[in-house]
Amino acid sequence: MKILFAGIIARYPFGGVTWCSLMYLLGLRALGHEVFYVEDTGECVYDPVQNVRSTDPSYGTSYIHAALEPFGLGDRWAFVNYDGTYHGRGAEAFTQLAIAKREPWYVEFFQRFDRLFTFGANIGTAASPVPTGEFTWLKTWQPVTLDDWATSLAPRDRFTSVMTWQIESFTDVGGNKDQEFLRFIDLPSRTAQPFELAINGPQRLLREHGWQTVDAMGASRSLWDYREFIQSSKAEFGVAKHTYVSTRSGWFSDRTECYLSSGRPALVQDTGWTAHLPHGDGLLAFSNPDEALAGIERINSDYDRHARRAYEISREYFDAARVLTRLLDEACA
Fold it and tell me: Where are the domains of the chain?
């Protein structure tokens, strides 16, 4: 099958976003499909060197090529700039996705598709109040190419995360990660366990409360920087966006999957995902500071067992071959 995969690598040229698209491409190719990456959002790229949205797509297109070329996909991509110009492969390589920029496009756009998928495992169920309108959402997980996350790197004694304090797209739909994180900001004062956050946010405030911080953009500038940060961690401590928590969406992070796939335990906030994934060993949930502290103690009490179980959960639930085979079966049903 020929599969066109659309992503946002140039729009957000950072390691975590890139791995999300790349693992679809690699996983689908491993199943025998011919894959091609296209980016046609109608928006300008972000250039982190200049810290601007740029009308010149050079940084974004160079980044796409640098990310895909080591995996044999250097000639399997096309980028359409905001002005309609093509980069990489030309217009003949694919049918351009026409995504409008005004609100009315939303319903019309999704009406074109036969199957719709979400990472929100509770969407469309009684567990979540998120409205679905006329749409039926099928459930899936981010696929992980497990071999790309195997590591012999010894972890540092740090519970870590890579996070954005606020993003514009969540300000009008219930709230960002900062609203939830403030509930846990005093956690370092209640445990001897060190924490390190790769964050673009109020680093001074966080350091005042005992969190060690590094620049998120530096830790995720490339695929390899992002992977090294995760694999050098002891475990993940992950707080979710308020929107995901308050709606009990069942959302589960692709970042957490990468920790698990590296054999790193994950202690992450419950958004309702606990109804769908095993938890307690390797993958632990919390909803308040006391539960977070208990999870830290549990992981540290038998770290090797939790590390082994973390990888087992990833292999059972997030392995790209399993996730993508099921997704294609449902999409083509």
Answer: 2-112, 146-317
Is 146-317 a CATH 3.40.190.10 domain? no
pLDDT tens for each residue of 231-245: 999 999 999 999 999
Residue type, 157: D
Residue appearing with tokens 């096309």: 78
Strand, coil or helix: 6 = strand
What is the Cα–Cα distance from 46 to 37, expressed in whole angstroms? 18
**pLDDT tens for each residue of 170-197:** 555 667 899 999 999 999 999 999 999 9
Radius of gyration of the chain (CA): 20
pLDDT in tens, 44-79: 899 888 888 899 999 999 999 999 999 999 999 999
C-alpha 231: how far from chain center: 16
Pairing of β 137-139 and β 34-39: unpaired
- Is the Cβ–Cβ distance between 285 and 279 less than 8 Å? yes
Q: How many Å from the N-terminal Cα to the C-terminal Cα in the chain?
A: 15
Q: In what order do the strands lie in the sheet with 86-88?
A: 2-6, 34-39, 77-80, 86-88
Q: What are 3-45's pLDDT values in tens digits?
A: 989 999 999 999 999 999 999 999 999 999 999 999 988 888 9
Please name the amino acid found at residue 113: F
Q: Write the DSSP string, 222-257.
A: SHHHHHHHHHTSSEEEE---HHHHHTT-----HHHH
Closest by CA position to 60, among listed 75, 30, 81:
81
Residue 284: exposure state from Cβ atoms within 10 A (0-12, 13-18, ≥19): buried
Write the pLDDT tens digit of every residue in 254-268: 999 999 999 999 999
